[in-house]
Amino acid sequence: MVTLSRMLRHLLTPDWQVRRRFPQPALQAVEAVIAAAELSHAGEIRFAVEAALAPAHLLRGETARDRAIELFSTLRVWDTEYNSGVLIYVLLADRDVEIVADRGLGGHVSADEWAGICRRMEQAFAKREYAAGAQTAVAGIGRLLAERLPAGAAGRNELPNRPALL
């Protein structure tokens, strides 16, 4: 069930808020960190930001987690050779960060480790440090994957490194 305050928050969070919090230089920096991180592991990282959910999504009671799982499919993060895709999803209206990792990473990174990265991003965002929070999270995921899923022979870039603005 959607609350009135959540509905209003989403209706009053316009799309331009994404560009305000993530201007072009910030997006380029996140893209560069993704590209650099992926050189050291066999995973694929995708970063997506959305201002707010459409009213139909809210009326269905969709959460940020539900939307992240939907985007995991839509952005084809699941479609990597080693099932090693990771989606970082930011929903500005809910001030929520979700990480969805493919099944190939299940035994390598714990739910608590993913949640810790999300919380640190949310803390940075609360201080209005959007670019730094995103870059730190991507670098942290890169370090985790480099330790537990080294690059080996993988080496190909299967997903765009450019952040998706929804």
Strands across the major sheet, in which order? 3-2-1-4
Strand content: 5-15%
Shape: globular
CA-to-CA gap between the ends?
A: 24 Å
Mean pLDDT: 94
Summed up, the domain count is 1
| Unreliable stretches covering 5 or more consecutive residues | none
From N to C, what is the helix and strand string? HHHEHHEEHHE
What is the annotated CATH architecture? Roll
Describe the structure concisely:
By secondary structure, the chain is an alpha/beta fold. It has one domain: Roll (Diaminopimelate Epimerase, Chain A, domain 1), CATH 3.10.310.50. The chain has a four-stranded mixed β-sheet with strand order 3-2-1-4, sandwiched between helices.
Description:
- With 166 residues, the protein is an alpha/beta fold.
- It has one domain: Diaminopimelate Epimerase, Chain A, domain 1.
- It has helices spanning 4-11, 16-21, 24-38, 55-59, 64-74, 111-126, 130-148; strands spanning 44-50, 85-91, 96-101, 164-165.
- Strand 2 and strand 3 form a beta hairpin.
- Helix 3 runs parallel beside helix 7 (130-148) and helix 6 packs antiparallel against helix 7 (130-148).
- The protein is globular, with a radius of gyration of 15 Å.
